[in-house]
Amino acid sequence: MKKRILLLAGGQSGEHEVSLMSARSVLGALPRERFDVTPVVISKQGRWLPPTETTRALETGKSAPGGDLVLHRAASAEGYDAVFPLLHGPMGEDGTIQGLLTLAGIPFVGSGVLGSSVSMDKVMTKQVLAAVGIPQVAWQLALRRDWQTNPQGVKDEAVKLGFPFFVKPANLGSSVGISKVHGAEEMEKAFELAFSLDRRVIVEAMTSHKPREVEVGILGNDAPIASPVGELSFDADFYDYETKYTEGVAQMHIPARIPREAAENIRELALKAFKALDCAGLARVDFFYVAETGEVLLNEVNTMPGFTTTSMYPKLFEAAGLSYGELVARLVELALEKR
Ligand code: ATP
Ligand code: MG
Ligand code: MG
Ligand code: MG
After folding, report:
1. Please, which residues have CB within 8 angstroms of residue 248's CB and are 6 or more apart in sequence?
2. Which residue's CA is the closest to the ligand 1 atom numbered 4?
3. Among the atoms of ligand 1, which is closest to the Cα of residue 210?
4. Does domain 119-135+209-337 have CATH number 1.10.1280.10?
5. Which range has the top average pLDDT, 79-93, 240-254, 287-301?
6. Rounded distance, CA 77 to CA 79, Å?
7. Superfamily of domain 139-205
8. Which residue has its alpha carbon closest to ligand 1 atom 12?
9. Is the ipTM of this complex over 0.95?
10. From the candidates 25, 111, 174, 179, which is the catalytic residue?
C-alpha cells in the first residue's frame, strides 16, 4: 500500500522561501511507487493554498495571498497516513503546527509540541541543555519591553559579554535577524533588528576564536542514531543568510576536518541534547569546534533542518549509507511508530 503523505511547506516565518526549496526537493525525490504525496503550501499570511496555487508557488518560489483557514484544512486532512511539516521557524518548527496535528490525530514527521517549542527558542534550549551539562557559550536574555523601556540597561548588560557578541531573535533560523556586534556603535541597529522580529532576544558571547562550524544529524525516536559529523567552511565573518544560500559560497566537508575524539564527543553530545529536549524523528544539532583550544560548544538544535538534496542533514545520512529517498521513507516510518 502506498503511503499517503501531506507535505506542508512555506509558512509564516522568515524562512518561507527556504522551506519551498526543501519541499521541491522532497517532492522530486520521493519514490512514487511507495508514496502518494500531496503538497500544500502555507502562505506567508498563514492561509493553506489550494492545489493550483500550491503548484504555482512551488514552481515560482513565491506564493500568492489567498487560501483557506488552517483549521479548516487540517480537519479535512483525515485520509493521510502522515503529515510532513517541512516548515522552518515560528508557526512551523515551533510546536504550533505540531499541536494542531496532534489535536487532529494525524501522525507527523519530527518532534512533537514539547521538543519543537523548546528547541525553537534558543534561550529555552540553552537552559535545558545547561541542566544536563552540555557546554555552551555565555548568554543573556533580553525582552522587547526591556529594550523599549530601558535600552541603555540592555546595552550595559550586553557589553559585559565583551565584543564581539551576537544578537539574535530567540525564535528564528537561517541567520535571519542575527548580527555580530563588533563595537558599541553597532548595538542600536542590532537590537532594533532582532526586536523587530521577536519579543525575546538572546545575546551570546562569541566563541574565544573564530569557530569551525560542525553539524550532526540525528535520526530516530526513543533510540536515535547520530550521523557522521559534517563541517561548513566559508570566507565570511560568520555564517549569515547570504553565505548560507548563495550557491558556491559555503563548502561542505563530510566528515568534518576535526580530530576523531572531538567528532565522537560531538556525536555523543548531540544524542544527549536530542534526548534532553524530547526531540523525535530528526534534528540537526550544530556545534562550534574551537581548534585553538579544543573546545566543543553546542550552538543550537534544528528540529526541521534544511532539506534540499544538497542540504547538510540529508548529506550526512547519505554519507552513512542512506539515500535521500530512503531517508524520507524512514522519517515517515518513524512518524507512524511514534506513541
Ligand atoms: P540555522 O539556519 O542553522 O537555523 P540560526 O538562524 O538559528 O541558524 P545560529 O546558528 O544561532 O542561527 O547562528 C548563525 C551563525 O552565526 C552561526 O552558524 C555562526 O556562524 C555564527 N554564530 C552564532 N552564534 C555564535 C557564537 N556565539 N560564537 C561564534 N559564532 C556564532
Ligand atoms: Mg537555528
Ligand atoms: Mg533553523
Ligand atoms: Mg544555525
Report:
1. none
2. 173
3. 29
4. no
5. 287-301
6. 6
7. ATP-grasp fold, A domain (3.30.1490.20)
8. 175
9. yes
10. 174
